[in-house]
Amino acid sequence: MEPQDIHAFAVHAAIPDFDPVPPGRRRHDGWSDERQRRFIAAIARTGCVARAAKAAGMSVTSAYKLRRRPGAESFAAAWSIALADARRRAFEVAIDQAMTAVLVPRLYRGNFAGTMMRGDDTGAILLALRAAAAMASPKV
Q1: How far is CA 37 from the centre of its chain?
Q2: Which among 12, 65, 70, 130 would be 20 to 30 A from 2, CA to CA?
Q3: What is the total count of domains within the chain?
Q4: What does residue 29 show for φ and ψ, rounded to 5 degrees?
Q5: What are the tens digits of pLDDT across the range 70-93?
Q6: CA–CA dist 85, 29 (Å, integer)
């Protein structure tokens, strides 16, 4: 998978549909419907809550508070779906990159001596498999 393919893979992430959390109090700097949609879209793209909160212009702490608020069930479900999908896609990219051969420069006494084709990266495959096991294990 080429780098531009990986970027396109993240940009075209499926954004789950949800009902925004009703506001407790209207604030100009609060969690508007648009900020909530931006947050879920960013999670779907990046798989990172901190980056998603930054993209929405909010803090991570306030995002978790919003998720726990009464009436946030749809928002929380969309969050979980988007995060799980992003992690699944990241795993697929990691496996693809780990199993793709790459050219590695060879040096002799500090001088370029040619290239060598390096096949699969066993360490990367093991890391990806550990990540898959962590995703599959139930949270306690």
Answers
A1: 16
A2: 130
A3: 1
A4: -110, 20
A5: 999 999 999 999 998 888 888 887
A6: 29
Residue 108 three-state SS: strand
Expressed as residue numbers, the domain containing 8 is: 3-136
Q: For 93-132, b where at least 16 C-beta lie within 10 A, e where not — what string?
A: bbbebbeeeeeeeeeeeeeeeeeeeeeebeeeeeebeeee
Question: Whose CA is closest to 50, among 78, 76, 83?
Answer: 83
Average pLDDT over residues 96-112: 82
**Which residues does 55 contact at the CB level (< 8 Å), separation at least 6?**
38, 39, 41, 42, 46
pTM, entire model: 0.68
Would you tell me how many other CB atoms lie within 10 Å of the CB of residue 69? 16
CA dist 98 and 75 (Å) reads: 34
